[in-house]
Amino acid sequence: MADVTVIGLGFVGLTTAAFFANRGANVHGIDNNIERNELLTQMKIPFFEPKLGEYVKKAFLTKRLTVGDDIQDGTKLSRYLFICVGTPMTLEGKVDLTSITKVSKDIGRALKTIDNYKIVCVKSTVPPKTTENLIAAKIEQESSKERYKDFGITFIPEFLSEGSAINDIAKPHKNVIGANDPKSLLSIDNLMRRIYRRQITTIKTNIISAELIKYANNAFLATKISYINTIANICNTLPGADVDVIARALGLDPRIGNQFLVAGPGYGGSCLPKDLSGFILSCRETGYEPILLKAVEEVNADQLDVIINIVKERLGTLSGKTISILGTAFKKNTDDIRESASIHLIRKLKNLANIRIHDPKALENTRKIFGDSIKYSHTIRDLVTDSHCLIIMTDWDEYRGITETKLLEYNKNRPLLIVDTRRLLKIKKSNRIDYVGLGKSE
Ligand code: UGA
User: Which residue in 79, 99, 103, 204 has the most C-beta neighbors within 10 A?
Assistant: First the structure.
């Protein structure tokens, strides 16, 4: 018998399963990707995420984690059924609910033959009303059972960031439990108390508010980034202005807070762009035009043109020039390139100039997209040699160690243009290096 079944062993599901197992729960993980399951049973994780490998290993060694691919089995095994399958963005910017619909039907079919009360906990990010109108509805249809009476349904949003998932789940700034009936609420609250063994600030609310909390949380983070990017773009037009000093001062105001105020090439990843787009569309469906959110999205998209204009203004024609890009992951400490600003930039530049890239973890993922149409460098030396321009896109810590001396040793083109969108380098503009820190005007 397991306590918790986790359906979907991607970034969120695997982190949840491994963490719960390390806190003493018996967890059964389910994924329809059999290769991934096999890799996991060999205690290897299929993507780069600090600390997660150790947690998975310990979970298997203590026999608290098992994996399989059968939702029928998984539904029978546990009282709590966590749905963590992907809800990616379609080409039109909508939320693709195909996997979650299928999983809901599978759970419903399994429940048909089971008499025990189960609680379905939705962790996948979904547009408002999906938990009740799609997931619970499909389960009812397939099982001929009634929500709240025969099974419970809850929405429990996740607030895990890639690159720090284990820290985020172990020390959450809040837990949110969305439930429309007291039995489900109490039951999840008890599970969380067992897992955390200490008081965590918990917002207990109804399902619709919990669904909105997830969207509102990510939309606010995106808003902060587009706001500080707007300030950075204003700084670009005012010699002497420095966005980092401004951000520091803003952050000292507790009403603003000091996080998510680092200007850069625009937010990317599998969450912020998708959730903002999904939020905007769901607002429109219910008759509200979210002008602010739309502006946040536009500022983010325009940020790439800000970077390209800086390059064009200084290099003139790009034809025949080599542009070297440092970092393709959407942020440091991950090999994830989904919706990465760097990937979007390469798409825009690759027909205009020769592109060379470097990334400590994401080279292979990037190769899957661009194949032989760009060049891949394993060292900074190889990347920089004979290049006309260097654009720093990802905030990898190791890029901070790049010095003017090294760059001039590797590169004979003078002056070498550096566009540092994350302001990582400590380099001054000189007659040998044309350094531009985004939002740091000279
Ligand atoms: C985001 C949220 O931060 C998590 O709380 C949430 O749980 C997750 O989405 C999700 O919905 O699953 P994540 O996508 O891992 O997490 O990445 P973030 O750390 O939010 O970074 C997103 C993007 O914003 C990155 O491209 C990053 O470089 C950029 N960013 C972040 C900035 O440009 N400036 C900042 O100050 C912070």
Answer: 103
